[in-house]
Amino acid sequence: MQKIIFPLLLGASIAMGAIWALGKPQYAAAALSPVYPTPPKKVKSIFPVDYFAPPVSGGIFLTGTCGELRPNHFHAGLDIDGVVGNPVYAAADGYVEIIRIQAGGYGNVLYLRHPNGYQTLYAHLDRFSPDIQAFVKNAQYEKERFEVELKPSSNLFPVRKGQQIANLGNTGSSGGPHLHFEIRSPEGKALNPLLCGIPVQDNLAPELREMKVYFLNGRREVLGSKSLSLQKDKKGNIGLQGDTIRFGGSRIGFGVKSYDKSNARNNQNGIFSLTMWVNDSLSFRWTADEFDFDDSRYLNAHIDYSARQRYGSWFHRCFVLPGDFLGNYTRTPSMGAIILDPKKPAKITIHISDAFKNTQKLEFWALQDVFAMETFTSAPYQFWMPFDAENHVDMADFSAALPKGALYESLALSYASELEEGAGIFSRMHHFHDEKTPIHRYFDVKVKPTQLPTALQSKAVVAICNAGRPDNCGAQWDGEWLLGRSRSFGDYCVMVDTLAPRITAAVFSADMRRKSSLSFRLSDNFATTGLAKDIQYSGTIDGQWVLFEYDKKRGRITYTFDEKVGKGAHTVRISAIDDRGNEGVFEGKFTR
What we know:
It contains three helices and 49 strands. It is mainly beta. It has four domains: about 5-25 and about 380-495, Sandwich (Chondroitinase Ac, Chain A, domain 3), CATH 2.60.220; about 60-195, Distorted Sandwich (Glucose Permease (Domain IIA)), CATH 2.70.70; about 205-370, no CATH class; about 500-590, Immunoglobulin-like (Sandwich). Strands 2, 5, 7, 8, 9, 11, 12, 14, 15 and 24 form a ten-stranded antiparallel sheet that branches. Strands 1-33-34-40-36-37-43 form a seven-stranded mixed sheet, with no helix packed on it. Strands 16, 17, 21, 25 and 26 form a five-stranded antiparallel sheet that branches.
């Protein structure tokens, strides 16, 4: 298939407040001033050390730590290894405040409120204690919904410290059996449970695996990066090759790939703190002591997002991008940016620690190499987008509006469009930069369809086609335009969805007398994001609604036989409806 790229014309609409150029952006002298909006100072929480008991019996072995780097968020608690069915206990006196059932996310989860105002959370549970389980099931049948959020009165389910409240499981988006456990402050912040006295055996220092240097401009924005070679001495100490390292840049920052381990487990867990001194003065500090949930997506600024997208590598930055307002940094004048001198070397000291103060240390000297300065050339681009402004791209048949705060650093954005031949595509394909650059906030994206039959207008969606199957970003008509919402750069077009979700039998036959449950797989041709809705399903037996539990990660719904279905012949009917109203139906007869 021949692809025709239509270049942008100078007469096209320009991004709001942007500079139209091809090549490297030019900074005015004033733009290099390191003056950035300072977020309000946040009051640190109090960590009650002797208040909470372990939520499981026996030793605690972690498969995930608080602050660990996860896709689009910092991990907000501890992942405690275990076996499905193991008892889970209340960490303190209190009452059940919230019960939530989700197909993804935390799965089956309990929130307990305690007399000191704090809250504990227990997620991915297999089942609740019998009284709570019965309460939930009654609510699900009353609402005829699997996913529910319930807030019982404070006197309905009181609990005592050490009382069993549930069984450990693997529900929601869990990657294996474990208990996800959180402690939240009265203000709703996620606190690191290891700072609250939850006992874990750990006398191992974090491991430093890789290191990078980043070349920065005066705004702390990245111009380029290079990997650095690490080596161990005879005593096992980690260092760089050479005592004094020369860098071809006047302003630099560093990044480290590091993991922590605890005794008796070989997991690559997250570190607790990362601190850097320059000439013995604090330059940068990040600490996983507590997290605001509204800030968690700033992880995409804290990490080297491009390295994560390209190679699956998780690098902590030891400097702060200008649009990163995560509250876990210590505010310093430099925020991790190091100005090098060509004659006087700077002493760099980096400490990587876990919550038990086991520390990996690295120390070296850095000098500017004026004879081998790095040069960086940017690819051709069409729009210059300042990180601290609202930005628009308005073309004849494509429009995107990025709100202020959507970018972590200013962006030289590339855009092109082309004719795309493919079934179900009814617009040009719009290449809106690439998915290796993160976006913090949702933005509106509009595409103008071409040759879309009137009969298919209700089936049309704005689709992003980055990898694998397309994502449906939603569909709202705005005159001739189709509006969606997204939080990713990539390739956008208008597609139509006329295919109903597929329902296939997983555990089902005419004779179910020896089976304890029946289950079906649900699948659809589009994933969903933005304004689009996930599949809505319903299951009945003999015309009466029954509880099919949905395991989203497996795409499977399961009904466990109970008093609702007795012995004899029965008819099961499953209905699944996607975002565009396409309905798939399965009907079958069985004997129990």
